[in-house]
């Protein structure tokens, strides 16, 4: 076959579908298209996943279709792909969050909570010294408080570790001191809590103030006379018969008055009329000055006892000062809380308070000044007695 003339060999037509090997090699080893060429088809965005050719969601922040976006790592910011999840940062800095929380409203809310959840501690650590004040804010157990849970309270009040601290409490049984700080109580905003070192003598606490009303009631009571037997008295006994004794006041009498009170002489009224009777004005004036010191703590003398309704037994001068405290524009607390603070825990009743307040505000200034100068006297100084004779009270009711 090798001697056959090549021209005589039969020709085999080439297949039109056959392609050169070099052409096939160049086609199979061509460079893959870029991401933009792969995802763009006819002007539409395609899914960015390598094995997906679906159309991508336009709002997807990962440029994927929904199925690939949910399966993929990371969190998409599009709400249709994240099922309500949000991308978070491991940093504690709020500014590192995708949407930083507003800083100023958070601080404002924190400050408002500190202001509302606050009380004022008034402590007496020295004899007849001005009390020290310590505000407590942002009480975690609000509206309850136990001072024993505050570890650094004793040092802040100036108390030593071996000092016994007493707490002034108000219960249904009355108001009194207890020798412990371990007492759970319900508190209100800006309420004053009184604390003292055991054994301290002070005249600036409400519990030690002189109550002229109680003094006057006791000083006018006559003690009953001695029980005499029903048998007929002898003539010798008539000279020694005693008259009803008078309960003495807190001050001493002159020798003439002492002898008149103890003598059985029947001319006792004439003798007493000739002797000058001690006057209570000086005593009450001194007590007014002592009671006025309570105003320095933002409250007034409140002699109202358990069961009394405010403003019974209140004095006109204290009511005038209390209305001035409650009118202070710088105090932005709740009116009921401020009322309880000024009147030392008296029950709040809105209608009664506003009735007395409207009557006071409608009075002329010279009548208000009269109330400010009245003594704490149960006859002329009581608020309920003083207001009856003033214009506008009957119409205010």
Structure description:
The chain has 397 residues and is an alpha+beta fold. Among the domains are: 46-79, no CATH class; 109-208, Ribosomal Protein L25, Chain P (Beta Barrel); 292-395, no CATH class. It is 33% helix and 10% strand. It has 17 helices and nine strands. It has helices at 21-28, 35-39, 66-71, 79-82, 103-116, 153-157, 212-219, 235-238, 255-262, 268-274, 281-292, 316-326, 335-342, 350-361, 365-373, 383-388, 393-396, and strands spanning 40-41, 44-45, 119-124, 132-136, 144-146, 165-171, 174-178, 184-186, 191-197. The strands form three sheets. A five-stranded mixed β-sheet has the order 4-3-9-6-7. It has a two-stranded antiparallel ribbon with strand order 1-2. A two-stranded antiparallel sheet has the order 5-8. Strand 3 and strand 4 form a beta hairpin. Helix 12 (316-326) crosses helix 15 (365-373). The protein is elongated. It starts with 20 loop residues before the first helix and ends with a helix. Residues 18-33, 35-41, 209-226 and 235-283 have low confidence and may be disordered.
